[in-house]
Amino acid sequence: MYQRLLVLKEVAMRKTFFAFFLVFFVLFKAHAFAEFPISQGLISEYEATPKAAYNSQNKEFLVVWNAFNILYPPTDPNFFGPVRGQRIKESGELIGTPFDIFNAGVLADIAYNAQNNEYLVVCEQWYNTVGQRLDASGNKIGGQVTLMSWSRFPRVIYNSLLHNYLVIGTAVSANPEGNCDIYTTQVDASGSPMGSPTNVTAGYGVSCDIAIYSIA
User: Fold this and answer.
1) Topology of domain 38-210, per CATH?
2) Among 203, 109, 204, residue whose Cα is nearest residue 151
3) Which residues are within 8 A (CB) of 151 and not within 5 positions of it... i.e. 6 or more apart?
């Protein structure tokens, strides 16, 4: 009888432990994968096109996006609001508050330079691709630089072997078919262009409506 009670007690303890583990797992999973707001912006703003880069030294993320001021029509320059950034811990906890990177711009992209522990953020601004370096804390390093003129849909990636960046953009032609070519330009670690852009689709103009491409 005593042995039976011990067995029943052990079974009850195992069930209790299993139930506790199950509740802990569900709560942890819900916390780990739950959505959380990064920025709620102003009531007059529409925030869009987020991109993120991982900082392997500080073990955190930097998210960038652009905001539209819906109080103005798209034909008004004031419609194109700022490009902002927000630092985020690996746990998802926000570090500080959102900060402005560009006063105006759209379609931002970001690359992390692990050797200098800094970022290069690019965006489209009045049909130009512009860049801005940021340190690990999100502070601006130097000023804004025009990387490619008459260039849209920018992308950027960092080359750790050559210690520079590759920036890509599409140059829209004036022909009625709306074709465009994809250009690349190398940017040094200081954020300055290295030479002139190179057309990587020369003679193979693609429709700007499908100018969606990737780099690796």
Assistant:
1) Neuraminidase (2.120.10)
2) 109
3) 124, 127, 128, 129, 169, 170, 171, 183, 197
